[in-house]
Design brief:
Blueprint (H helix, E strand, L loop, with lengths): L3 H4 L15 H6 L7 E6 L2 E7 L4 H11 L1
Length: about 70
Amino acid sequence: MRTIAERLVGEAVVVQIDTQENPNLAARFGVRGIPVMLLMRGGKVIGQLAGARPAEAILAWFRQKR
């Protein structure tokens, strides 16, 4: 199966952040547990999804929120 990033080419940019190496960034967005996905538009969080999910569920969530 292709990765989520590959499947969203042209629709979104997918970025993975190491919260141990970037604790200030994690704090800025209130990340308390991992995994967590934040959907952002214009620098603002417009959606958040916590917990491990299958790729299809993540893609469905993304398409619902955009």
